[in-house]
């Protein structure tokens, strides 16, 4: 599997956000046309009665850059999956996205309507195809203020909203701040309030459900296969998955080194065996490039780790994106609750 280093962790390309992936922007023809996408006709959006503002927009993005629009953005191109999900949660259908097939595999919190233009990979988007959809705003996830993608997009006369990939100091607040920026840019602040209130209520209800759970120590992880060897990525302090678990009253057992942005660590099977009585949670999404869960199931050392041997290693449902928005966060909360109380 092709990998890319990030601080203290290596991670599979398919399962990383754009800020950790970005290479030079490609110009390969995706074969996509500029057909208009269908509206987001989910049951929730069909019943949505919140208003969209109509006046000029001026906001400051995650890196202090001023974004000015004559009116809220309607034709939005987006290059990362969390931001794609966020738009759909706001009942806004993007005109173009990066890697819609990957999105459908890794992020099931919001379904992408048909007809959205595919602009290639998140790491190497096809900018010619992207701007061929005539967007009035491009939303990206940046890792630094001088990310290569921002330099590339600066050559075009279209506003760009740069959102911060992650913030290990408070990943939940960063997730909500990104959602808020997108709501401001699209005039969907009223809808955003409904979604955020729903998330907060969901979290409060879930805390009560797991208050008496016997298990408190946990670790969430995913992994990949490289050269026949299994690498494991624990989501430690500062990771969204870890912090959502701790918001429920659990204790993240991974105390090893993590990168300063995403809170991700790196270890192997032996390293996981040192986590004592912690309960394991892991991604249930099968990576098309290698089924790490199947490889672990066949490993004799793995089978002897207490959490595995005692039936305390639980797969999340497939399609729960570990770097998602408020709707994904609700999926994460539900999975923790369901697996701890079954």
Automatic annotation (TrEMBL):
<feature type="signal peptide">
    <location>
        <begin position="1"/>
        <end position="23"/>
    </location>
</feature>
<comment type="similarity">
    <text>Belongs to the bacterial solute-binding protein 8 family.</text>
</comment>
<dbReference type="GO" id="GO:1901678">
    <property type="term" value="P:iron coordination entity transport"/>
</dbReference>
<keyword id="KW-0732">Signal</keyword>
<keyword id="KW-0813">Transport</keyword>
<dbReference type="InterPro" id="IPR051313">
    <property type="entry name" value="Bact_iron-sidero_bind"/>
</dbReference>
<feature type="domain" description="Fe/B12 periplasmic-binding">
    <location>
        <begin position="75"/>
        <end position="342"/>
    </location>
</feature>
<feature type="region of interest" description="Disordered">
    <location>
        <begin position="33"/>
        <end position="55"/>
    </location>
</feature>
<protein>
    <submittedName>
        <fullName>Iron-siderophore ABC transporter substrate-binding protein</fullName>
    </submittedName>
</protein>
<dbReference type="InterPro" id="IPR002491">
    <property type="entry name" value="ABC_transptr_periplasmic_BD"/>
</dbReference>
<dbReference type="GO" id="GO:0030288">
    <property type="term" value="C:outer membrane-bounded periplasmic space"/>
</dbReference>
<dbReference type="Pfam" id="PF01497">
    <property type="entry name" value="Peripla_BP_2"/>
</dbReference>
């Amino acid at each position: 599997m092709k990998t890319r280093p990030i601080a203290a962790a290596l991670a599979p390309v398919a399962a990383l956000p754009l800020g950790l992936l970005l290479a030079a922007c490609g110009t390969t023809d995706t074969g996509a046309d500029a057909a208009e996408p269908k509206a987001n006709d989910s049951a929730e959006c069909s019943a949505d009665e919140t208003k969209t503002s109509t006046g000029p927009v001026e906001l400051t993005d995650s890196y202090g850059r001023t974004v000015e629009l004559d009116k809220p953005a309607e034709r939005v191109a987006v290059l990362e999956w969390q931001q794609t999900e966020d738009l759909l949660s706001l009942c806004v259908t993007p005109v173009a996205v990066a890697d819609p097939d990957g999105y459908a595999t890794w992020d099931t919190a919001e379904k992408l309507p048909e007809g959205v233009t595919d602009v290639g990979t998140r790491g190497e988007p096809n900018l010619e195809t992207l701007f061929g959809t005539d967007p009035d705003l491009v939303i990206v996830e940046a890792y630094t203020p001088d990310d290569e993608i921002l330099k590339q997009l600066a050559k075009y006369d279209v506003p760009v909203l740069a959102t911060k990939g992650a913030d290990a100091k408070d990943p939940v607040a960063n997730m909500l701040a990104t959602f808020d920026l997108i709501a401001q840019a699209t005039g969907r602040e009223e809808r955003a309030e409904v979604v955020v209130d729903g998330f907060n209520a969901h979290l409060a209800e879930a805390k009560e459900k797991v208050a008496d759970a016997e298990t408190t120590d946990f670790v969430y992880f995913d992994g990949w296969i490289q050269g026949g060897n299994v690498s494991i990525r624990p989501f430690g302090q500062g990771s969204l998955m870890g912090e959502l678990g701790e918001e429920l009253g659990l204790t993240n057992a991974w105390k090893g080194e993590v990168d300063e942005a995403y809170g991700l660590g790196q270890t192997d099977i032996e390293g996981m065996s040192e986590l004592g009585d912690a309960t394991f949670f892991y991604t249930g999404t099968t990576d098309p490039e290698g089924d790490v869960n199947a490889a672990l199931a066949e490993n004799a050392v793995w089978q002897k780790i207490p959490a595995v041997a005692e039936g305390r290693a639980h797969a999340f449902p497939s399609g729960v994106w570990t770097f998602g928005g408020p709707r994904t966060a609700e999926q994460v909360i539900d999975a923790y609750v369901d697996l701890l109380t079954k």
